[in-house]
Each structure stands twice: as structure tokens, then as C-alpha cells.
Amino acid sequence: MSADLVSLAIEASKKAYVPYSHFPIGAALLTKSGQIFQGCNIENASFGLTNCGERTAIFKAVSEGHLDLEEIAIYGETANPISPCGACRQVMTEFFEPSAKVTLIAKDGRTVEMTVEDLLPYSFKELE
């Protein structure tokens, strides 16, 4: 499924609303039941109100009642595979298992695969 998610993440980035940074991000996630949700970053003139592509996809899935998230792919127009911000890493930790696969994608199509736990070891959730 990763190849499909990569294509869908790239496709999602084309819908990004990025009039300030001109830095589109796209994400596609797969639920354990086979549903796919896409998301893009959506900027706001008040930068703190901007939402990242990863969180858009996750929030879409959760708002539709899907808490069984399995895998996510994230695309950025970066020389190296995109690195999610800290807020996105923490949200992924909330909704994915630590072993869930995360595929990071560069503008040339190169990918790096890791897990949610790789992205945020010793996360806040683990402190409960």
C-alpha cells in the first residue's frame, strides 16, 4: 500500500493553500479498515493558525470516526525526504501505534521509511 500512499500524498500537496510560505505539503493515511484520507497544509495570515498536511489528514480521519490508523505517507518539496514538525509528531503519537509505518517523501520521489516511535522516542504519551 505504500506506493499508493506515496502517490496520494503527492496528489494531496497540489491542493495545499500556501500563499505565504509557498511550501506545499501533502499526506495520505491508511486506516486498518482500508480507508484512505488525504490532507494538505492550510496556511493562515496568523501563522499560528496554520495546519500541517499530516494533521489535516489525521483530523479528517478522526472526525469521520476512524481511530484505527495504520500508516501515513508525507510529501514535501524538499531536497531530502520531508521531516514532520514536532506538533505533527505528537499528534501521530496520539493516533498511531508506535510501530506504525511513516513514509517520508522528497520532491524527487526518494523515500525514507520509519515508525512513529522513530520520529518521537520517549513521547509524552509514554509518560502516562
TrEMBL record:
Coiled coil spans: none
Annotated EC: 3.5.4.5
InterPro entries: APOBEC/CMP_deaminase_Zn-bd, CMP_dCMP_dom, Cyt/Deoxycyt_deaminase, Cyt_deam_tetra, Cytidine_deaminase-like
Transmembrane segments: none
Catalytic residue list: 54
Superkingdom, taxonomy of origin: Bacteria
GO CC, one annotated term: cytosol
Record's catalysed reaction(s): cytidine + H2O + H(+) = uridine + NH4(+); 2'-deoxycytidine + H2O + H(+) = 2'-deoxyuridine + NH4(+)
Keywords of this entry: Hydrolase, Metal-binding, Zinc
Free-text function comment from the UniProt entry: This enzyme scavenges exogenous and endogenous cytidine and 2'-deoxycytidine for UMP synthesis.
Entry similarity comment: Belongs to the cytidine and deoxycytidylate deaminase family.
Protein name (record): Cytidine deaminase
Organism of origin: Streptococcus ferus
